[in-house]
Specification:
Elements: E1 15-18, E2 30-36, H1 41-52, E3 61-67, H2 75-84, E4 89-93, H3 95-104, E5 110-114, E6 133-137, H4 140-154, E7 160-166, H5 172-186, E8 189-195, H6 201-210, E9 215-218, H7 222-226, H8 228-238, E10 242-244, H9 247-251, E11 256-260, H10 262-277, E12 288-289, E13 293-298, H11 299-304, H12 311-316, E14 319-321
Parallel strand pairs: 2-3, 2-4, 4-5, 5-6, 6-12, 7-8, 7-9, 9-10, 10-11, 13-14
Antiparallel strand pairs: 1-3, 11-13
Length: 322
């Protein structure tokens, strides 16, 4: 019986993460690669679903994961590492990770969870993606306008909105186009601060605060998600209402979050992985769009901001953090 050690480290190759393995059992042993920014809760949900489907770590499954820890520039090398590890399939979260995986291989199956898989060039057809890539879209481009609408409902007299975005993410421009169009329709002024690296976030936030916005919208992006603690603490210190795309922000002290139910998408991704490992070609599986969405409101943060939450908004919330 052999047990593999948990290895973690951050360096030029990012974070290397392998799960402990149990005693080997006879039969086919699958190796799955995970490419993401951090080991967040949706990935744990993916693993639990795989186990429900009969894949047990160490018995018939090994998982190799590479986490960029907010350094998007590492994704190409991390994807290459997974290919060198001879994984049978890659699960990729976010547009930069998905594109890096796609560029690294045309033969290893890839299942992705990303904001927009069509307009970013991850696949060319949703119904019949072809090739080695399939997965799930969180439809974040469409949701950026909805988030701006929620800010209008939440912040009385909203006139000036700041936006923090990642210009290195191919999804970025699509997101910003949606925000600008919605803001123009509602007569809102928009100030945008873009970053390409996590080290630029402090300066970008300071630049946004200097414009004295009534509220700030954080664009859907996994680099920004990896720096959620810094972002949320900045908003609390400057007393600026902000809306976020992922539940992790609200759970970490953010005011309000609205987006696709990402953990559910990862459960569905596990089902796709199961089908692919049993012989289905990834290109024959349609890319599915999110159908379940979450609205999470943190009333404790609202109270600290002296910002009353409209009863109609609270009534629509899927979760209220008190």
């Amino acid at each position: 019986m052999r047990r593999r050690e948990f290895i973690a480290g951050v360096g030029s190759a990012g974070t290397l993460w392998t799960f402990r393995a149990k005693a080997q059992q006879p039969g086919r042993h699958w190796r799955i690669g995970v490419l993401s920014t951090q080991p967040l809760a949706p990935i744990a949900r993916f693993r639990r679903k795989l186990e429900e489907l009969g894949y047990t770590e160490g018995r018939n499954l090994s998982t190799e994961a590479r986490f960029s820890m907010g350094r998007d520039e590492l994704y190409p090398s991390l994807a290459s590492e997974l290919i060198s590890a001879r994984v049978d399939l890659i699960l990729a979260w976010g547009t930069p990770a998905a594109l890096a995986a796609k560029h690294a291989t045309s033969t290893v199956p890839i299942v992705i969870v990303a904001g927009d898989v069509l307009n970013t060039g991850i696949v060319s057809n949703l119904a019949n993606p072809g090739g080695n890539v399939t997965g799930f879209s969180a439809v974040n481009v469409e949701l950026e306008g909805k988030r701006l609408e929620l800010l209008r409902e939440l912040v009385p007299g909203l006139a000036r909105v700041g936006v923090l975005a990642n210009s290195g993410n191919r999804l970025n421009q699509l997101n910003l186009d949606t925000v600008r169009a919605a803001a123009s329709a509602w007569g809102l002024s928009v100030e945008i601060a873009e970053v390409r690296q996590r080290t630029e976030i402090d300066a970008a936030l300071d630049a946004l605060a200097a414009t004295k916005p009534d509220a700030i919208l954080i664009a859907s992006d996994t680099l920004l998600l990896s720096e959620r603690t810094k972002i949320v603490e900045f908003m609390a210190l400057r007393r600026i209402p902000a809306i976020y795309p992922f539940r992790e922000y609200a759970e970490g002290g953010g005011l309000i979050a609205h987006g696709a139910n990402i953990p559910l998408l990862f459960e569905r991704a596990a089902s796709y992985v199961d089908r692919i490992l049993k012989g289905t070609k990834p290109g024959d599986l349609p890319v599915q769009q999110a159908t379940a969405f979450e609205l999470i409101v943190n009333t404790r943060v609202a109270a600290a901001l002296a910002l009353p939450i409209p009863p109609s908004l609270l009534a629509r919330a899927d979760e209220v953090i008190e």
